[in-house]
């Protein structure tokens, strides 16, 4: 077996050093009733690399790759071009096959890129501090709510109807089992929601998304002021981090915690994961943050270096009193984010955002001209909602039959709600072309 | 065995003085060791590492909320970016470079075929919300891995979506809470039992769910004290959380009796599967009577640790817990694969949703490629070789170092620091000296129940000759420490790493968590400063 270096001769020699007659002897603490006499039944034996690769090509052949077809799905995961350099860099073995930097003397590479990552996140969000990543945007949002509960010592989170439905579900699940109230505001497809009146003295935090799940762009400055007046925190979620190249950052609106899904920068769609959560807050809440933090220091020679720090918040030190149970997070996805954003820089990131907005505007105009299609958004970044004259799920299936991936029927994520049945959510990034948009428009005319 | 209160993980203690690294080059570099600034100290306005077309002119629809002012990101050209991150990479130790015996973390070889198949068009580029008719192969792939995990563990169900081991723990303990709630017992069963040797994630998870964690003592053989456990079980106990093999590297030999006692008391058995590598293919946890167990795909099934993630933590569930598995899961209708998502009519009472989308697909792909490469025969050999390697290390060092418990061990060998008594050398010093010998240190000061613990997990992918050199290095360090005159040398280690010991106290006292222009004292070039 190609991954196992021990030979039979090695094994015999090692057993003699140990003083055991067989490997079975080493397993003698396993109760006899649970010791398998042979390999686990009903499973195939080992295969060569060629056979394994062939099997995965078989899986791939049963899927429709977005690269081979007009593609307009977003809803919290966005198809962007990732420069070849990014994927090359994250596959360097020194990054790929290293672990959490417990020994800073020999993991300065990981520690320094995480310090760069934390800095980039604070710059994009307009916040003071950021951690070294979360699993993804959805789990990061639930952690933000828990953090707000800890800070305010209150137990009611007010959740916007413009927040991604699966993020709402994750918060709801956390609330149910960890014991707080998640007050779910009703679905806000039109972008008219105003939560200010709902903020009261029991509210620990308000969770909003910008642009919203339905694409609307809002200024939350007044909501932030209302939260602060009531002693609550404002949590702003960004599921399309490229939007921060063009939009006012949540920090400038007065957000207390900002959570982003960072997938768009550096990380492919990957059928939903692994992604990378960005998590930023104010200096005063630094010690209430979940997850790993990298800080600057000096070594014994006085040279600048980086270490994991403020670990007294974490599970391996604090155990049942930890701010979170998080251990492993998304280090390599954070590296992909950092390398991609470094390639883009100020000019590239801003232009990427402009391109996304322009492509989405073109798509919106083309679709709004289709009879029966109504654009719901006055504002959007690279994603918007249209109302169709019939259920969107049927339309999307009919488009898929023509090999066009034409957006997300909102009913997939918000089932059993007649008010969203005809809504279709579409995204266009820099990868969209006229050669993709025009077939979508033509096909839509046919299926409507 | 001595109870240790030292939870410093090596943080305590000052930074040793002395110097070996200042060779006085102009650049501060030392041949292949190149000093590297932060990107924020390198950028120039007007440089960019990507070429993007001019955006078409459109009517702006940003609701008047365009960003004012600049972000502050540096501009670098592509070759600068490549050099920067390449140089940073060279400051890291990694499995690809050698023995990485970090106990409890299972740092085994990460095959590159796994990386290749995870990036295939039609797998790596799929959108999670494409119509299910266009992702039939992806759903089949997830179900194939689920089938392997269920069969290898002998468990009837698996929740695939948790993003890492700790997230899997959360999932499993939520399932237990849900089962208790269904029986109307959640309010009265508030206690979770966990050994003092448990991973910190166990008590952190239980506490987050409102359980009160009660420690159960170990016996002098490093296992759970069965009598003490039985005495602790009662109508207030919701569950036991037990790692098996445990964090001392030992198999809980009373586990069948433990699970029987736990179930008789009306409680559930959460098994922390972090150490599954020791028994994969040889023992099915389902045969031991557990109710749920998370599997760290980045440990046992070789998905890359990536500098601290991403991981994946699927949770296998017993029949009593299966109805509470979270959304989503994959179902087959005739020849068609479907995803049961929130709101879908299903049997059972799903506990909710833990994460957006379907779980860590990229990790599923890699783990499945690894599993198929090994097959049932190869996986059995994995466990055997992992256990053999650990016992070989234990046997080859037991005369000079001090094993914490009688053997045989499973996949990791645990030593305490009694062999360093009166030498002036601590576990931390010993570990740092290993760095100069070209090794990543073992896990130290964990588990907490062993004084100055050193937990060595070689894994099955280390060759015997490499283990022999590693053993030789440790014997040499041990001999040096025992001369009683080398403490200063140990305290100065490492000498040859990219950095010497770092001042962790300073980092925590005055946290600097981001770069700011003001971080650098005026007029001082950070690079020159590093060189001096």
The ordered H/E elements of chain A are HHHHHHEHEHEEHEHEEEEHHEEHEEH
Total number of beta strands of chain B: 13
Low-confidence stretches of chain A: none
**Quaternary structure of the protein:** heterodimer
Question: Mean pLDDT of chain B, rounded to whole units?
Answer: 92
Major sheet of chain B: order of its strands?
Answer: 1-7-6-5-4-2-3
- Report the β-strand fraction of chain A as a percent range: 5-15%
Q: Please name the CATH architecture of the largest domain in chain B.
A: 3-Layer(aba) Sandwich
The main sheet of chain A comes to: 7 strands, mixed
Characterize the biggest β-sheet of chain B: 7 strands, mixed
Annotation, overall tally of beta strands of chain A = 13
Taken together, the total number of domains of chain A comes to 2
Structural class per helix/strand content of chain B? alpha/beta
How does the overall form of chain A come out from the CA principal axes? globular
Order of SSEs of chain B: HHHEHEHEHEHEEEEEHEEHEEHHHH
What would CATH call the homologous superfamily of the largest domain in chain A?
Type I PLP-dependent aspartate aminotransferase-like (Major domain)
**How many angstroms separate the termini of chain B?**
47 Å
Kindly give the count of domains of chain B. Answer: 2
**Uncertain residue ranges of chain B:** 1-21, 521-532
Estimated helix fraction of chain A: 25-40%
Question: How is the topology of this model organized?
Answer:
The complex is a heterodimer of chains A (448) and B (532).
Chain A: H1 8-18, H2 23-26, H3 49-61, H4 84-90, H5 93-96, H6 108-125, E1 129-130, H7 137-152, E2 156-159, H8 165-178, E3 181-184, E4 203-209, H9 221-229, E5 233-238, H10 250-253, E6 257-261, E7 277-281, E8 294-298, E9 304-308, H11 315-318, H12 331-368, E10 374-375, E11 383-387, H13 392-401, E12 408-409, E13 423-427, H14 434-447
Helix pairs in contact in A: 4-12, 6-12, 7-8
Chain B: H1 78-89, H2 112-118, H3 136-153, E1 157-159, H4 165-182, E2 191-195, H5 201-208, E3 212-216, H6 226-232, E4 237-243, H7 255-264, E5 268-272, E6 292-294, E7 315-317, E8 329-333, E9 336-340, H8 361-397, E10 402-403, E11 413-416, H9 427-436, E12 443-444, E13 454-456, H10 464-482, H11 487-492, H12 504-509, H13 526-531
Parallel strand pairs in B: 2-3, 2-4, 4-5, 5-6
Antiparallel strand pairs in B: 1-7, 6-7, 8-9, 10-11, 11-13, 12-13
Helix pairs in contact in B: 2-8, 3-8, 4-5, 8-10
